[in-house]
Amino acid sequence: MRSKTEKIIVFFITFIMFDFSHAGEVKVRAREHIDFHNVDINGGDSTSYSGLSNTINIWWEKPGVYSVGLAFNPIFGSAKPDDDASDQLGDKIKLITLGIEGKYYHRYVSKNLFSRIGVGGTRLDSNGEIGDVDGYHAYMGIGWEFDIKGVGLALEMAFRHSGLEQNIVVNSVTPSIGVHFYH
Length: 183
Hints:
Elements lengths: L3 H18 L4 E16 L3 E18 L3 E8 L6 E2 L11 E13 L7 E14 L5 E17 L2 E14 L3 E6 L2 E6 L2
Antiparallel strand pairs: 1-2, 1-9, 1-10, 2-3, 2-4, 3-5, 5-6, 6-7, 7-8, 8-9, 8-10
């Protein structure tokens, strides 16, 4: 049975996708990133993991102004421990997210500057003692997009905070690059 919060998120995502899909501006965008995760279990043991990942956005956009819609991460990718693996987490983790994101270009400062915020559900998939745990995340990023003859090259630095079951907190720093074809 889904919680009330999960039902609200699913309804909101469905509404956004249905409403904006009629506008004819629905786009699929992808970005590749390096994730640096700090996993804190019960406010004590902390382990760092890093690895390559990606995010897919399916959203309505007005290029160079704003975008809003669904975000899923990762299609491929996982993270390995930076030092010794934790028995609780194992030697590989995957932070899986599904939620909504919005991207806004700060045109009054510079047409290239953008920020991104997002919220959604999160699953930490581990091969350690804790197994898989679920929770929620908040995402904040800032970036700069270069337009090269209709091709956007977006560089972004972001932070994701995930609060999970079993009193687990994952703080992630995730620099990324996206290539977007606008014409």
